Amino acid sequence: MKYLIAGLGNIGPEYAFTRHNVGFMVLDRLAAQHDFKFSFERLAFVAEWKHKGRQIYFIKPTTFMNLSGKAIRYYMDQFKIPTENLLVIVDELQLPFGTLRIKPKGSHGGHNGLKNIEELLLTTEYPRLRFGIGNNFPRGRQVDYVLKPFSNEEMPELPIFLDNAGDMVLSFCTLGIQSTMNNYNQ
């Protein structure tokens, strides 16, 4: 079984610890814990790792958030990954900070990265792990909010939530989406 795990974010040090980059953070945390490394490839930083008989490919698209679908489509074709074995990790404004939800499908909900993926995959039926970043921002300031680093109050808890998200990724690859939803959705 082969899987493609795509953590969404933006490249560049100015985005490193922003809310919009939580997908990158989850994958970086998994890589550090399980000793695999990313290398710069076409359209993404890519890593591969075997876990419990599963071949897992991880990508952090270098196309910036709004064109994430380009890298995902390319690597799905490259590695011959079926849509049900794709998992997209994305920040979610509609969930409180640290809330994690995995779903087998859904709408883009206004998220430009998901919108691009939907356009290029021609479906909304692909699994996604939504990482709650909260929505504590004044009306019309959404872009500023998602491109800011996590607050000093949020930072101490962030590693716990990143670890939980990593556990959900591994569960998705070994137990499947339904069991992962049953065991982890809050």
UniProtKB/TrEMBL annotation:
UniProt entry keywords in alphabetical sequence: Cytoplasm, Hydrolase, RNA-binding, tRNA-binding
Name a single GO cellular component. Answer: cytoplasm
- Which residues does this entry assign to the site Discriminates between blocked and unblocked aminoacyl-tRNA? 10
What are the binding positions for tRNA in this chain? 15, 64, 66, 112
Catalytic activity field? an N-acyl-L-alpha-aminoacyl-tRNA + H2O = an N-acyl-L-amino acid + a tRNA + H(+)
What does the UniProt entry say about where the protein is found? Cytoplasm
Q: Gene3D superfamilies, from UniProt?
A: Peptidyl-tRNA hydrolase
UniProt cross-references to Pfam families, sorted A to Z: Pept_tRNA_hydro
Return the EC number: 3.1.1.29
Q: Which domain of life is it from?
A: Bacteria
Q: Which InterPro entries match?
A: Pept_tRNA_hydro (IPR001328), Pept_tRNA_hydro_CS (IPR018171), Pept_tRNA_hydro_sf (IPR036416)
What's one GO BP annotation on this UniProt entry?
protein quality control for misfolded or incompletely synthesized proteins
How is the quaternary structure described?
Monomer.
The free-text function statement in the UniProt record for this protein reads: Hydrolyzes ribosome-free peptidyl-tRNAs (with 1 or more amino acids incorporated), which drop off the ribosome during protein synthesis, or as a result of ribosome stalling.
| Family of this protein | Belongs to the PTH family.
Q: Which PANTHER family match?
A: PEPTIDYL-TRNA HYDROLASE
Could you identify this protein by its name? Peptidyl-tRNA hydrolase
- List the source organism: Dyadobacter sediminis
Organism phylogeny: Bacteria, Pseudomonadati, Bacteroidota, Cytophagia, Cytophagales
